[in-house]
Write a structure and sequence with these properties.
alpha+beta; eight-stranded antiparallel sheet; globular; alpha-L-arabinofuranosidase activity
């Protein structure tokens, strides 16, 4: 029988349903799947595992009772599963008993309810984790249980309350219910564990009650059906007709309800899950009986979520032996495969995030840190609850604000890249909320041994109640700035072993570790065999362990080995991926450059004569430079206009005051600094666009190289406003004394020009001229991030900031490193 490995994997995911459901209802093991079929389909008749003996299994299969031969595939599956259960000691669910020799003990994540994120100081960039968690908490408290369950009630024929949510949760959508289900449940359960907010628990208990009543009202296929749409969608799915991932949605619902039981102790949630498992296992049996298992696999060649994951979790409760199952390479299915490894001990399933728990190798924690900081932390828009991304754009000249549309044909959504709190609910909304709810689940890991062991793998300000050791661990991180050369962290914690990760982006050369002020020998405490950790074992009592790691800039090549992309590099500072603020318009390509614009001159950085990245990227002292930032405004009737740089041609123009966080704020902010020192309001100043370090506004009112003409072309005289108003300023051209920057009035209010004293027609000092030549010095619309750098470009300078910190700004994360003379 020929079948794709992906289909086989997904078949395993659904066939699991029968196993766990039957155990709860009848206390009997019912197996529909076995490794043998999947094993042979993948062309592997022996995976080298000690518990697999193909010859012995073949002998056992030859003993299959004659009455079962040539019958349903399920009978053969059950027969082999029985043999597996006998040879492995039955369905005890003991991973330790079944794990192959030498596998070692897995690390256990610290219980979420014992970890609390700390806010840190107001100036600490590390408190971004606490702030992100609080923003998500606000959104969860905002969500209405009646609106979340509106479509479930309608489908069950029960009275609805209020109005439904929109987007992918809108009535009639085949993905409706996914957010209400697993995504919303998981994040609320986890958030309740992380914050202790009882309102969350009360709200989700109400959701479970409503879903339970909806399930009781269903009369589909006997019992247990729960969805926001009729079972005709599943009929279409099984007929290989168009159906939008109904099992993906079902998995989310089941996962959330199961979490309500395992995390919040809601027994009603477990009952609903078991009832659902019974219903869907019956569907799977009927499908295979009516057609073939091949049809089932074909139907499964679609998004199904992590069905095997939730069923393995259910197995840990029901103790039904499902160790004869196999999973493959779809990402959610891999999550289930991880759970299989933990439950039944099969080493072949060690994949993805849990590799660190199983191997204790720091490289997996490094990878997690990289994704956490550069991917997840920038997925929500600042402190706005319920505003998240569909995906994170990585192309040149992109912005989070205008990217994220799904493929054509899917339901309409917010026209921009950011979603909204009421009318979006993409699949990534649920994933995003879940991720922000689990910020504390991968900081601390526990290790069993003669002395309790603790692995600290993420530097996130937090407090951990280490109950097994009778200790409290407090972790703090010093605020990080681009000018720093070290990253510092410290923590206070009977006999215990504490291991702290040495990040891959640093080096032990120059690193300093102290215990209560006494320097430790890093050579003795950290080595390759220890997996990149500093380990201290002692009797802990009010002790402070402080780590100080070197941190520096570096580049990484794009993951493309084609020759035309060999110069494309990304810039990182420690674990932070830096993005260059760029105009939203893509460059015009020519015959010398790639058509995708990536290697066009506007993305090129000048690495001439640079031995390292430090030769063309320099840190910006944000604390001092922020004092030089300003936004210049004028009033025109009821409008407030700001002086800005046009993204079309680099000329000055007046624009309406932008919304905070928007890309327009970048172009309405200038760094005004005195050429020869002194105050901003002085005889000679340079006006530098915020996002173009090394560039300046010229007397022609267009952006160019600072001092490019060698004379007064980029010099302005900042003088008290000609209108005489307090706090206003006028900008006199250095190359044309008596001439000033002016903004036109009336219908042409967006135009910026030059007016000179003595020009006549009231331009020689009249009220209108003095008003047009005067600007109010307002607070800057944008400020430098603590981790800001300046990159030397071939055509312009680039301001680099952490990707996670950006909101609506246009940016690029890859640059072409070239050698050549920059414009002078």
């Amino acid at each position: 029988m020929a079948v794709s490995s992906a289909a086989a994997a997904m078949a395993a995911a659904l066939l699991l349903l029968l196993c766990a459901a039957a155990s709860v209802r009848r206390g009997a093991a019912l197996h529909l799947c076995t490794d043998r079929l999947f094993h042979n389909m993948q062309g592997r008749h022996d995976d080298g595992l000690p518990h697999l003996a193909p010859a012995e299994e073949a002998t056992w299969m030859a003993l299959l009772p004659r009455r079962l031969r040539g019958g349903a595939a399920a009978a053969e599956f059950d027969w082999l599963a029985l043999y597996r259960g006998l040879t492995r000691g039955g369905g005890t669910g003991s991973a330790a008993a079944r794990r192959p020799p030498g596998a070692g003990e897995m690390l256990s994540p610290a219980p979420l309810h014992d970890v609390r994120l700390d806010a840190g100081g107001e100036s600490s960039s590390s408190s971004m984790y606490w702030q992100a968690q609080q923003t998500k908490l606000e959104y969860l408290l905002y969500l209405d249980p009646d609106r979340l369950t509106w479509t479930f009630r309608r489908q069950a024929g029960l009275p609805t309350v209020g109005d439904p949510y929109g987007g992918w949760e809108a009535p009639g959508g085949q993905l409706s219910g996914h957010f209400t289900g697993c995504h919303c449940h998981v994040c609320v359960c986890l958030h309740w564990h992380c914050t202790g907010n009882e309102t969350l628990r009360e709200n989700m208990a109400r959701v479970v009650d409503i879903l339970h009543s909806c399930q009781k009202a269903q009369k589909k296929m006997g019992t247990g059906y729960l969805a926001t749409y009729s079972d005709a969608v599943f009929d279409a799915y099984e007929q290989l007709d168009e159906a939008w991932s109904p099992y993906y949605t079902t998995h989310k619902i089941m996962q959330g309800l199961l979490d309500q039981y395992t995390l919040a102790g809601n027994k009603k949630g477990l009952g609903v899950v078991v009832w659902m498992a019974d219903y869907f296992s019956s569907r799977v049996k009927n499908l295979i009986r009516k057609y073939t298992i091949q049809r089932h696999w074909e139907a499964m060649n679609e998004e199904t979520g992590g069905f095997n994951d939730v069923m393995y979790q259910l197995y840990t409760i029901t103790k039904d032996d499902i160790s004869g199952l196999h999973a493959n390479t779809h990402l959610p299915v891999l999550v289930g495969a991880q759970k299989r490894y933990e439950v039944v001990g099969d080493v072949v399933y060690k994949v993805s995030r849990n590799l660190f728990r199983w191997t204790k190798e720091a490289k997996y924690a490094d990878h997690y840190e990289r994704l956490l900081i550069n991917g997840m932390m920038g997925n929500q828009r600042g402190t706005q609850p319920g505003v998240m991304l569909y995906f994170l754009p990585m192309g040149p000249g992109r912005s989070k604000s205008v990217s994220g549309r799904p493929p054509s044909g899917l339901p309409p959504m917010n026209p921009g890249g950011w979603g909204g709190p009421n009318d979006t609910f993409w699949c990534c909304y649920g994933t995003g909320i879940e991720s922000f709810s689990k910020l504390g689940d991968s900081i601390y890991f526990l290790e069993e041994g003669k002395a309790p062991g603790l692995c600290i793998i993420q530097y996130i300000p937090s407090t951990f109640d280490w109950k097994s050791a009778g200790l409290t661990v407090r972790q703090q991180a010093k605020p990080l700035f681009s000018t720093d050369t070290y990253f510092e962290a410290s923590g206070d914690a009977r006999l215990a072993k504490v291991s702290v990760r040495i990040p891959s982006w640093t080096s032990t050369d120059g690193a300093i570790t102290t215990l209560n002020g006494e320097k430790l020998d890093l050579t003795a405490s950290s080595n390759s065999s220890n997996g990149g950790f500093i380990t201290v074992t002692k009797l802990w009592l009010e002790d402070t362990l402080t780590l100080k790691f070197p941190i520096a800039l570096r580049t990484e090549a794009i993951k493309d080995d084609r020759p035309e992309y060999e110069s494309i590099q990304a810039v990182l500072f420690g674990p932070h991926l830096l993005a260059g603020l760029t105009h939203g318009n893509l460059p015009v390509t020519d015959s010398n450059h790639s058509n995708d614009g990536l290697t066009s001159g506007i993305w090129e950085v000048n690495a001439t004569g640079a031995a390292s990245v430090a030769g063309w990227v320099t840190p910006l002292p944000s604390a001092s430079l922020n004092s030089q930032l300003v936004t210049l405004t004028q009033s025109s009737g009821e409008r407030t206009l700001v002086l800005s740089v046009s993204i079309a041609d680099g000329r000055l123009e007046m624009q309406d005051q932008p919304v905070p966080g928007s890309d327009a704020c970048v172009h309405a902010t200038f760094r005004v600094y005195a050429i020869a020192g002194g105050e901003v309001e002085g005889p000679d100043v340079t006006i530098e666009p915020f996002d173009m370090p090394g560039m300046a506004v010229t007397n022609a009112l267009v952006v160019g190289r600072a001092g490019s003409s060698g004379g007064q072309d980029t010099v302005f005289h900042a003088v008290p406003g000609l209108d005489g108003a307090p706090g206003s300023v006028s900008l006199e051209l250095g190359s044309r004394p008596g001439c000033f920057v002016t903004a036109a009035a009336g219908a042409n209010a967006t135009q910026v020009g030059v007016g000179c004293l003595g020009d006549g027609d009231d331009r020689g000092g009249g009220t209108e001229f003095r008003r047009a030549a005067s600007f109010v010095r307002a607070a800057p619309m944008r400020r430098y991030h603590p981790l800001s750098f300046a990159a030397r470009g071939m055509e312009r300078g680039f301001l680099l900031e952490p990707l996670w910190s950006l909101q609506d700004e246009f940016y690029t994360v890859y640059f072409s490193l070239v050698s050549g003379d920059a414009d002078s």
